[in-house]
Amino acid sequence: MTPRALFGLTLDELSIIAAELGLPTFAARQMADWLYAKRASSIEDMTNLPREARVQLASAYEIGRITPLTVEESADGTRKYLFPVGQGRAVETAWIPDKARVTLCVSTQIGCRWACQFCATGRSPFGGNLSAGEILSQMAGPSAGGRITNLVFMGMGEPLDSPEATLAAVRILTSAWGYGWSPSRVTVSTVGVLPGLKQLLEQARCHVALSLHSPFPEERARLMPAEKAYPLVSVLEVLRRSDAFGGQRRLMIEIVLLRGVNDSVRHAKETARLLQGLPCRVNLISYNPAPGLPFEASDRSTMEAYQSFLKSTGRVTTIRVSRGGDIAAACGLLARTRPDSKPSLPVL
Questions:
Q1: Among 301, 311, 323, 241, which Cα is nearest to 281's?
Q2: Are residues 44 and 156 in the same domain?
Q3: Rounded Cα distance, 328 and 78, in Å
Q4: From the CA atom positions of the chain, what is the Rg in Å?
Q5: pLDDT tens for each residue of 14-30
Q6: What is the pLDDT of residues 69-98, one digit of tens each?
Q7: Is 158 one of the catalytic residues?
Q8: Interstrand relation of 251-257 and 281-286 (parallel, antiparallel or unpaired)
Q9: Is 35 found in the same domain as 78?
Q10: Residues 163 and 47 in one domain
Q11: Checking CA distances to 281, which of 7, 67, 76, 257 falls within 20 to 30 Å?
């Protein structure tokens, strides 16, 4: 029988295992401490568990943390890691340094089933959802290179297609028995999958990033098939009704600007109208052209005009600088779903 991975299990799940082994309740916290704070490499390392309990645990379980196969480094210092996720499949993760801030961009799916028309990930074959352990394993290689200050669920896939795994990963990241991070260090991005979004708003305190891209329903539906299943107006209404935002928790609206498609002042005006009364900030993102896709990046002056109009309405608006484009690690370019699809340097 294939051993089950302990890495990625919540305290409640570890408590069930402790009970099955006849261990006291506090043994679950001991296991969590070894898995997340101490980063144990084997069950045998869990030396404050009785020897017999470790033997029993090892008969059915393993640590199960995945390590990266390869890493590529950009001229700007960004790194892209490739992680195997079973059955010849893989996902990519981006490690992005920026002065004192180091952001890790993790994937939640193999490919993405929502197929946004401008995104290389959406053109990759969809291979399923990742488990909480597979999501958090993406910290394994990058964290060895230094401290990670922020983690964003903005890599391959839609995090809220699988809210149970995403929420479990967030819980482990932000709980005292897990990594003990502040929720303000974590951001979950979504195209607006409403069932998962409602769960996220109710069960977590991390930041939320909504991919908007066009304020016009028909155009957004052409760019983002998710509009047909979860109309933007319905998503914004759920966000407006929520009392989740305020204090340290933020809502970000993400807009990738495409030359001649969604970057006009008309788009900026309609975006401003749609966001009235919603406590949020807007991130304008320069498009990273992908092979085979018929889109180009908006020029800087056009992006600044869009930004200027939103700022004139009182909306905090930033232009996000892309990083890692030369190794296809920038926004919308993560696309490798097989370990052998592109050579890179092995992780030493």
A1: 311
A2: no
A3: 10
A4: 21
A5: 999 999 999 999 999 99
A6: 999 999 999 999 999 998 899 999 999 999
A7: no
A8: parallel
A9: no
A10: no
A11: 76
Task: Provide the residue type at 321 as one letter.
Answer: V
Same domain, 22 and 80: no
**Of 116, 119, 206, 331, which residue is the catalytic one?**
331
Q: Which residue in the list 72, 92, 158, 227 is annotated as catalytic?
A: 92
Angle at 325 between CA 319 and CA 330, to 5 degrees: 60
Same domain assignment for residues 170 and 213: yes
Catalytic-residue membership of 92: yes
Same domain, 21 and 142: no
Q: 232-241 and 265-274 helices cross at what angle (nearest 10)?
A: 40
Number of Cβ within 10 Å of residue 17's Cβ equals 19
Residues 236 and 325 both lie in one domain: yes
- Identify the domain containing residue 41 by its residue range: 4-62
Give one DSSP letter per residue of 244-293, joined into a string. Answer: --BTTB-EEEEEEEBTTTT-SHHHHHHHHHHTTT---EEEEEE----TT-
Q: At 31, list the tokens.
A: 């296991």
